[in-house]
Task: structure prediction
Amino acid sequence: MMESEFLATMALTFKLAAITTLILLAIGIPLASFLVFSTMRFKSVIETIVSMPLVLPPSVLGFYLLLAFSPASAIGIFLTEHGIRLAFSFEGLVIGSVLFSLPFMVHPIQSALTQVPRSIFEASYTLGKSKIETMLRVILPSIRHGLISGIVLAFAHTVGEFGVILMIGGNIPGETRVASIAIYDEVESLNYAIAHQYALTLFVVTFAILLLVYTLNKKSLGGIR
Amino acid sequence: MIVVNITKRLDTAEGSINAHFGLTINNGEFLTLFGPSGAGKTTLMRLIAGLERPDSGKIEVDGEVWFDSAKKINLPPQKRSIGFVFQDYALFPTMSVRENLLFAADNAQQRANVDELIELVELSQLSQRLPTTLSGGQKQRVALARALVCHPKILLLDEPLSALDPAMRQKLQDELFLVHKRLDVTTLLVSHDIAETVKLSDRMASIELGRIVRVAKPMEFFTPQTLSGKLQLMGEVLSIQYDHPVYLVTLLTGNSIIKAVVSENEARILKVGAKAIISSKAFNPIVMPLE
Result:
């Protein structure tokens, strides 16, 4: 009984991190490109918003998300009308995690893009390749160290997330109860053995993922950097 | 035939200037844009390539309009038949030499020609290597070959040899000359090296402060005088020393330092750092090979 609950919580934790990371990858690349190449006047405003989760206490973001999701708010009313419930649901956690881990995906990609010489883009254009094709075939492969850093950081950061989830997700087993919340909960109930089981698992798994990625990264970049 | 007649506002070290470039390049011609840095040579290349937009005017290549401000036509670089070799080569770092060329190929015919091009620039042994493992000269050759894959109507070379040591530079000048003769591609080169310009180009356009001040055959340009018993060298004054009762002037011409004795009147009009001509009359030069 205890064992299956443990597994369900761990599975949920990594499912949340994986989905969040995929979504972040999809929006992180265009967003980072925009921040590097746009000459728009309000760029710094967007840059600031992207970086906010770095300094903002997670509970602040969680609090406002909770207000937004509540059936009393305009967004909440709209969502309820469409049969979507975000507060205390897995979908709500995904939205919160995407916002909260945004800078961890965007910043590494942004800094990798900044280092690509302008002439690399231009060379591809003069060879008749469109902007999209240039991005997919030339730029993304050459900034893959930035992409890998972004993926690893966003994933690890989502696994370790606590404050936002506590605010908007609560502690529903199988739905919103992730490992970091479970640890807190078990410690509160003085179940140190189970808390330790969660903590050690997170510790080992996180270490293994990071180690694997950095080792692969080093190998694959051997010929380039 | 390529006809360029465009204007562009340029921000230079001396402030903003209104550049105007009027130039006609014949098919198969090798034309060098010669002039000091900041004169607008690279800008002219980038305007022709479509990497920058002229403020007004027209660019026409073999009857096809690439840019026309009056008709609001501005083809993007992708739609212009160009080969551009950048100063920093701009090779794609994750692709091997061969992949860099294959990337440029649009159809099966061009893909089939890739190996021939690699051979032409003597890179067959290195075709599987990544750009970072190549020397400057090798990278330059890859960039040149890559620019030629699509059979461009015009090859644009932006100081492609400036980062190389003199020996390699000379070798690649020879190669560039051969490639141009072999493929008969209209070529525009940016250079501020006199020897390179004379060696490679059919004609040269001298650019100063955003204007093409003169278009001529390089030999006519650099040696305006007809054959006479006169030796003339251009150089830069390094120092002027008073050595009683005359003045001793040290000049740098090319890589050689020449000392000459001048009178006080002559010394007065010379300035350290300025360009000067050193000439000698009634003189019978002996030209001998070095090796």
About this structure: The mean pLDDT of chain A is 89. The two ends of chain A are 50 Å apart (CA to CA).
